[in-house]
Design goal:
Layout: H1 2-23, H2 28-43, H3 48-73, E1 90-95, E2 103-107, E3 110-116, E4 127-134, E5 137-142
Parallel strand pairs: 3-5
Antiparallel strand pairs: 1-2, 1-4, 2-3, 4-5
Helix pairs in contact: 1-2, 2-3
Length: 144
């Protein structure tokens, strides 16, 4: 059972690290560390029960105690654009917006790419409501 546990802990280390690399949530990495402790114990032929207990204890302690500190340390500062303030506002169409095509609207003196969420084309000078924002384009619908 000893050699199998060495392989199992090695696989857990790799899988947890890969999950962490894909999620960047600072959760799976602690299980990788717990598996590393269990891996070292398996090399010294400690019983499987002790390995599993060590894995669980180390992982839980790290998730509960270290993760919050690490999250604050690695917190990224996102730049707030306040673009959500445009939701629900009325804009004026400046370039026609066909169904499935991009057009342009003007809102608060600024021009935005826009697409319609409705099933009608929107012509120049028609009023539209901003329903959503996807990247740098507004999702709009004609005001009736």
């Amino acid at each position: 059972m000893g050699e199998i546990m060495i392989i199992i802990w090695f696989v857990v280390i790799i899988v947890a690290a890969l999950i962490e690399m894909n999620t960047m949530d600072l959760t799976s990495i602690w299980f990788s560390v717990g598996a590393l402790v269990a891996f070292v114990l398996s090399l010294t032929r400690v019983s499987t029960t002790v390995q599993v207990i060590a894995f669980l204890v180390v992982s839980v302690i790290l998730v509960v105690a270290v993760r919050p500190v690490a999250k604050n340390y690695f917190k990224t500062n996102s730049i707030s654009t306040n673009s959500d303030r445009l939701l629900g506002k009325v804009a004026t169409c400046t370039k026609p917006i066909g169904i499935g095509e991009r057009g342009e609207v003007k809102i608060d003196g600024k021009y935005w790419l826009a697409v319609t969420s409705g099933d009608e084309d929107i012509e120049i000078d028609e009023k539209v409501e901003v329903l959503a924002i996807e990247g740098v384009k507004l999702i709009v619908d004609k005001i009736r």
